[in-house]
Specification:
By secondary structure, the chain is α/β, with parallel strands linked by helices. Helix content is 47%, strand content 17%.
């Protein structure tokens, strides 16, 4: 009873203190007093302060989608992750079924994201992939039974070089197996009909030869998701193709070459024939710019698409250096790459952390299940048909 009385007294004193700090009290003490807001200002202020930050309550979180939803009601990068998930959900539920382009850059396979990306394709969450060659090469590397290994960013790289071990930050790969795979890709190219191929065509040929249900390329081929690597030369796939090219030159025989301008032509046709487009950028680099330039190139076909209807990016690159990888999606609007009315978001969180969260959100909500598949028919370099099925 004594403690209860003390608590009541404490609360009373607190209430009295609040009353003493009223405007009248402040004036009497010679303190600064805010000007009284007009009724319209009070109304405006009420609207601005209408949505409080909600604490993340882990006692109520039982799944990834619930955690990401809670992030969306918090702040800083947690809110940005929640916003990116919301934009992806809008892409997947838009009745116009926008074509979703996925840009992939960075050490995503080394980071352990191979299955996450494969599942995004398998569950119908993306329609077109634009990737660096390195990511796709490492997908092939694992499809052939080779592994990435836990390493250390503090390793002695001179020792690793003597052991033919390549380091990707804190991940190791076997250089001997890389070289074996490079040559295998070169030999694979030699078995194809000589001529020019877009990266999509060449990667489709490789994809058919992969027997691994967890492969990104093999899953994309089964699902009819085209895969482009506009900078394919700048990867170990490019090294394998150079080995093939060298043999062709020595033997005086025709071989396989990659036509990067055909890549432009093919990807832009997908944009032009889509009712609407959306973009997901994981990191930045060439894939981000390639996806955006395909919108700009639509003028070649006499069409202004208006830009991507939805877009989000997960990256650690920042805007203030002026580079493309960190440039904001608002900046892309000035180029016509992202629509002026687009829903867009950016989370500046490294993809090994952020991608499983946003992908887990849309997967756990089953947002790709009722979305009809996209079917493309090619008579290269022409896209003769793009339609939804199912």
């Amino acid at each position: 009873m004594k403690n209860q009385t003390k608590s009541i007294e404490t609360n009373t004193r607190f209430e009295e203190k609040g009353a003493l700090e009223s405007a009248e009290y402040q004036k009497s003490q010679g303190y600064f007093v805010f000007e009284e807001l007009s009724n319209s200002q009070q109304s405006q202020k009420g609207k601005v302060l209408a949505r409080p930050i909600e604490s993340i309550d882990l006692e109520k979180v039982n799944s990834i989608d619930q955690l990401v939803t809670a992030y969306g009601e918090a702040s800083i990068q947690a809110r940005n992750i929640g916003d990116c998930a919301q934009v992806w959900e809008q892409m997947l539920t838009d009745p116009d079924r926008p074509t979703i382009f996925l840009g992939l850059a960075g050490p995503l396979i080394a980071a352990g994201l191979r299955k996450v990306i494969r599942d995004m394709v398998h569950y119908g969450l993306v329609d077109v992939i634009v990737s660096t060659g390195a990511i796709l090469y490492q997908d092939i590397y694992q499809a052939k039974g080779f592994k990435h290994f836990r390493g250390s960013s503090d390793a002695d790289d001179s020792v690793l070089r003597d052991l033919y071990i390549d380091r990707i930050f804190d991940t190791y790969v076997d250089e001997e197996k890389f070289w074996r795979l490079d040559c295998t890709i070169g030999q694979f190219a030699s078995a194809l009909k000589p001529g020019k191929y877009s990266s999509r065509q060449f990667l489709a040929e490789i994809s058919q030869a992969l027997d691994d249900e967890n492969s990104i390329l093999a899953t994309a081929y089964r699902r009819g998701v085209p895969v482009f690597a506009p900078a394919l030369n700048d990867s170990s796939i490019g090294i394998g193709l150079t080995e093939h090219y060298h043999r062709c030159v020595k033997d005086g025989k025709p071989g396989v070459t990659i036509d990067s301008i055909q890549d432009n032509y093919e990807l832009t046709q997908i944009v032009v024939q889509s009712k609407a487009t959306s973009a997901i950028y994981i990191a930045g680099g060439v894939p981000k710019n390639f996806i955006n330039d395909s919108v700009v190139m639509s003028y070649i076909f006499g069409k202004d698409t208006g830009g991507h209807r939805y877009a989000f990016q997960l990256t650690t690159d920042v805007p203030h250096w002026g580079g493309l990888s960190g440039s904001t999606l608002s900046e892309a609007t000035s180029w016509g790459k992202v629509s002026k009315k687009a829903e867009h978001a950016m989370a500046f969180v490294e993809p090994s952390v952020s991608l499983p969260l946003v992908a887990g959100y849309v997967m756990k909500k089953g947002l790709g299940r009722r979305r009809p598949a996209l079917q493309m028919t090619w008579d290269s370099p022409r896209l003769t048909s793009l339609k939804t099925v199912g």
